[in-house]
Amino acid sequence: MGTGLFVGLVTLDLIYLTPTLPDRNQKVVAFDHAIAAGGPATNAAIAFQYLGNSAKLLAVVGEHPFSQFAATEVQAHQVTLVDLAPRWAEPLPTSSILVTQSTGERAVISINATRSQATVSQIPADLLQEICSQQIDIVLIDGHQMAVGQAIAKQAREAGIPVVIDGGSWKPGFEQVLPHVDYAICSANFRPPGCQTLADVLAYLQAANIPNIAITRGEQPIIYVEYVEYVEYVEHSISGEIPVPRISAVDTVGAGDIFHGAFCHFIRQTNFREALHQAAQIAARSCQSFGTRQWME
């Protein structure tokens, strides 16, 4: 059992299971729906907690009724919520997600945290002390609270705490976080400036001296690069691919987030490649039920 700190975004997710995506001026009746707290760091924290750990979620939530619903749902999963702006009165960022029943693929319309950016001064002092005293075992940054994420990543690195990034997509400011990262787990949509191909992305991350890099590609194998220090104290890179389970997907919403939460769990017990493999099993399991929570039942 470990304690993880997850820094980033909380949203209110409205998820609909539909026969097809609507055309112009068309109404579609959903087969099913779910309402839940969402966001990369949020779903990762809940997965990490479910796997037998203690998760803390650092995010802007506030006091709007939407926020209170999301906070209650997060806390129902025993995740400790640390609110960067408890008096924030604006509505929580909301995502409308349409899941196509026949394929499990999703279409998402959302507003991210651009309107609710916190400052470093809003980080609670007791949380910083927990990092300094190594009461936190692993940190995940999803990039949606970049200034806060950079400060947390820097302090965690100085305390010797592993730092993971969820690179779902490139966000300005990530270049300030990368020097403090131990594990970069990115999607195929992650494109730093000047990167056109996955080879470019790998080269960019390697140039930032990140020792462990992985790129997830949906149903295709995970690409990874890791550095191994041998007895002679010479570092060598090892690269390859890790197959992912073949499944009939019901819903892929949140699978990447759940992958990251599971990775944070398994990397504390095993090596990089095996942690990626085990996290892929959990993510595949989550895709076999509707919504972001049913897989835990």
Helix/strand/pairing category? alpha/beta
In the CATH hierarchy, the architecture is 3-Layer(aba) Sandwich
Helix fraction by DSSP (H/I, runs of at least 4):
25-40%
Give me the Rg, rounded. 19 Å
Give the strand line-up of the largest sheet.
Answer: 5-4-1-8-9-10-11-12-13
Number of strands: 13
| Biggest beta-sheet profile | 9 strands, mixed
Would you spell out the secondary-structure blueprint of this structure?
Layout: E1 3-8, E2 11-18, E3 32-38, H1 40-50, E4 54-59, H2 65-76, E5 80-83, E6 94-100, E7 106-110, H3 125-132, E8 138-141, H4 146-159, E9 163-167, H5 174-177, E10 183-187, H6 198-207, E11 212-217, E12 220-229, E13 235-242, H7 255-266, H8 272-286
Parallel strand pairs: 1-4, 1-8, 2-6, 4-5, 8-9, 9-10, 10-11
Antiparallel strand pairs: 2-3, 6-7, 11-12, 12-13
